[in-house]
Amino acid sequence: MLLKKYHGLGNDYFVMRPLDAELTEDLTRKICNRNFGAGSDGILLGPYPPGSEWYGRIANACGGADGAAFALRILNPDGSEAEKSGNGLRIFAQYLYDEGIIGNVPVKLLTLGGVVSATVHEPERRIEIAMGRVTFTCGEIPATGLCGAEDEVLEKPLDVCGKQLLVSAASVGNPHCVVPVPKVSRELAMDIGPAIETDSHFPNRTNVQFLERVDEHTIRIEIWERGAGYTLASGSSSSAAASVAVRLGLCASPVTVLMPGGTLDIRIDKDWRVTLLGPACHICDVIWPL
Predict the structure, then answer these.
(1) Which of 101, 146, 183, 216 could lock onto 156 through a cystine, CB 3.0 to 4.6 A?
(2) How large is the angle between the packed helices 235-247 and 86-98, nearest 10 degrees?
(3) Residues 56-112 pLDDT 10s
(4) How many Cα atoms occupy the beta-carbon half-sphere of 189 within 13 Å?
């Protein structure tokens, strides 16, 4: 089967047509393994057109399709399924553009985390994703025990690895835990990120961002991604971290998010709807033997 490899700021995915093969959790893990497989941060499975089985299943799961042109599934390297991925959505939009399936006009894409709007801007080759509305409400993320279900999870104490951290949580269709710190580092993300990801306060596990304020419109983050581990860049993580920074008064929109893999630009509207802008690039094609 044909796997087309793309990256968004070093966060790499294979795009795979859904009819090429039955993609089991075990096969997903084998393909994504960087030592014994082809190696990636996940697989984007699609496009599923309206009327297809998976389009209907995803629409039912997230409460409707809102006229989306295509649906896609986002698979983590551990075989689990993600609701939404900002980098994955930019990659998928660029793939659809490269294949001549869409042009440089907005197109709605359906994910388990809801419907987004994607626009490929040429010739600068930057993709704009309207990620939807961010929420900080405990019951919507979901988070449990950090505060009341209707309260916002902002600067709440969390005991992890023998330390008490002040964390904030948000969802842009998938869960995030943001930890503001004086200085971010890869080591910090790798040491504490796994414990936060699987902490019992997050019943669906969570993505984790360590956030350092740079100036009024700039933050730096290090990321531990749910189901993937340490990650060079993440669009949904950038969206959540930038939103938390604005909500806490650390920054003002628009926010430039600096990551080891590169930079994303995040705009947060007054109703907390988030739009991200950044690149996605084709790397190579891989033939995987069935």
Answers:
(1) 146
(2) 130
(3) 999 999 999 999 999 999 999 999 999 999 999 999 999 999 999 999 999 999 999
(4) 27
Shared domain check, 152 and 67: no
Q: Give the CATH number of the domain where residue 9 resides.
A: 3.10.310.10
> Do 114 and 187 have their domain in common?
no
Q: 151 and 35 in one domain? A: no
134, 274 Cβ separation under 8 angstroms = yes
Domain that holds residue 47: 2-132+279-287
Question: Is the pLDDT score of 114 beyond 90?
Answer: yes
Contact 232, 203 (CB under 8 A): no
Residues sharing a CB contact under 8 Å with residue 220, sequence separation 6 or more, in sequence order: 184, 211, 212, 214, 257, 258, 259
CB 149 within 8 A of CB 141: no
Bridge partner list, 168: 178
Name residue, tokens 């047509």: 17
Contacts of 151 (CB under 8 A, 6+ apart): 137, 138
Is residue 11 located within the same domain as residue 96?
yes
Helix (H) or strand (E) holding 258: strand 255-259
Global confidence as pTM: 0.94
Q: Do 168 and 265 share a structural domain? A: yes
End-to-end, the C-alpha distance of the chain in Å comes to 7
* pLDDT one-digit tens code per residue, 127-185: 999 999 999 999 999 999 999 999 999 999 999 999 999 999 999 999 999 999 999 99
Give the number of domains in the chain.
2
CA distance 268 to 255: 8
